[in-house]
Amino acid sequence: KTMAEKLAAEIVDAYNQQGAAFKRKEEMHRMAEANKAFAHFRF
Model's pTM, two decimal places? Predict the structure, then answer.
């Protein structure tokens, strides 16, 4: 596949809310929510 084809496939996946980038974003948001409870602690 060419770079253009890969980029087009990733854009389509993002539009359909799937693919590697979307999964990475979802995981990041889950981690942020999990860590929010500990934000008030100072180390």
Answer: 0.56
